[in-house]
Amino acid sequence: MQRLQKVIAHAGIASRRKAENYITQGRVKVNGEVVKELGVQVSKKDQIEVDQVPIYQEEPVYFMFYKPRGVISAASDDKKRTVVTDYFTDVSQRIYPIGRLDYNTSGLLLLTNDGDVSQKLMHPKHEVDKVYVAKVNGVATNKKLLPVTKGMKIEGKNLAPAKFLILSTDVKTQTSIVQLTIHEGRNHQVKNMLKACGFPVEKLKRERYGNLTLENLKPGDYRELHKNEINRLLEETKIK
Predict the structure, then answer these.
(1) Ramachandran region of residue 51, left (φ > 0), alpha (ψ -120 to 50) or beta?
(2) CATH code for the structural domain at 130-209
(3) Cβ within 8 Å of residue 39, ≥6 positions away
(4) Is the per-residue pLDDT at 240 higher than 70?
(5) Quick one: pLDDT at residue 17?
(6) How far apart are CA 67 and CA 24, in angstroms?
């Protein structure tokens, strides 16, 4: 037996918090009866509907995907552009990305049908490190990049301190390779931080998410994650 809101989240319909709202709003039925109370326990034999649409209680699955550039971090797109789930044609579950990578950013992206885990990993107070490698315009120096370690305010938003490492510089081409480690997930955060330091980003790749890396994966490849890998990832967050 599981709580109704958790089953809805696992089915990929919504996060657990939104599922709770659906229940209290009277949008959920169990075996044909409207349920408005939170904490109701259901089994796999129970028939559950959200907005009169039956849901199927799928087993939770987790994938790590090497997102290529030029692919949208979504499960669908109204303009018919390529989305990350187009690479999962042999996966029957209704998966969706946890967070997003920009259209022209490549690298490690997680996908799941587990709304509960997705909500935990996307919580604004989590502390899961995300490591990016950027090719930037300009010759990077420790002094110029120092502001990222003290927290920055960009577009009216305060950003948590980040860590940086200059991997290489090329005076001839006036470019540098910089590694940046953050634990937030704001839109265009890495690009905005580096640009604010005077280094516009040419290319960007996310190489690590918590303890997970892209080892043995090529762009467009994915692999299923074991439950213990997800548990280790959740251990790195403040919330459990």
Answers:
(1) left
(2) 3.30.70.1560
(3) 3, 4
(4) no
(5) 86
(6) 37
Q: For position 6, what pLDDT does the model report?
A: 84
The percent of residues above 70 in pLDDT, for the chain, comes to 98
User: For 15-28, how does the pLDDT look when each residue is reduced to its tens digit (9 = 90+)?
Assistant: 788 899 999 999 99
Measured CA to CA, the distance from residue 167 to residue 22 in angstroms comes to: 48
CATH tag, 62-119+212-235: 3.30.70.580
Topology given in CATH for the domain delimited by 2-54: 3.10.290
Q: Is the predicted pLDDT of residue 130 greater than 60, yes or no? A: yes
| Annotated domain spans of the chain | 2-54, 62-119+212-235, 130-209
Burial class (CB in 10 A: 0-12, 13-18, 19+), 14: middle
As annotated, the active-site residues are: 102
Residue 215 tokens read as 């080892």
Q: What average pLDDT does the chain have?
A: 91
Its pTM surpasses 0.85: no
Q: What tokens were used for 140?
A: 């990077």
The answer to whether the CB of 88 falls within 8 A of the CB of 61 is no
Helix (H) or strand (E) holding 6: helix 4-10
